[in-house]
Specification:
It is a single chain. The chain has 121 residues and is mostly helical. It has a single domain, classed as uncharacterized protein sp1917 domain (Helicase, Ruva Protein, domain 3). The chain contains seven helices and two strands.
Length: 121
């Protein structure tokens, strides 16, 4: 699918707080934990549990969320299709970063080993 400017704008304005509970439900339904989810988020963004909670409380949108992030240098190893979009083909940096996060959550929910998700093994 082709990413439109409207799609990019909608993603930028979406709050992390509105999506995070869905991430938790998705991974817990598949037998994974909130701690594992937070570990994945920390790997991608550098945010520890306190910072994640702070961003949720301030209702940071994804634009603010990723502007504050220290993106993992191996994030570009995250490839594949998520939500109908091939990550490698997304041109908008913010949309690509949000899809990185979606892909990691998806891999966690699918039961991948943590070292594979975190691109360490």
């Amino acid at each position: 699918m082709k990413v439109t400017p409207e799609h990019n704008e909608r993603i930028a304005k979406m709050t992390f707080a509105s999506v995070y509970p869905h991430y938790i439900v998705k991974v817990e339904k598949k037998g994974r934990t909130k701690d594992e989810l937070n570990q994945v988020i920390e790997w991608l963004t550098g945010f520890d549990n306190n910072k994640i909670n702070e961003l949720i409380e301030e209702k940071a949108n994804f634009e603010t969320f990723f502007n504050k992030a220290n993106l993992n240098p191996n994030a570009d190893l995250i490839k594949g299709v998520i939500c109908g979009y091939r990550i490698e083909e997304i041109e908008n940096t913010l949309t690509k970063q949000v899809r990185y996060l979606d892909k990691l959550v998806d891999e966690l929910a699918k039961g991948k080993k943590m070292e594979k998700i975190l691109r360490t093994g």
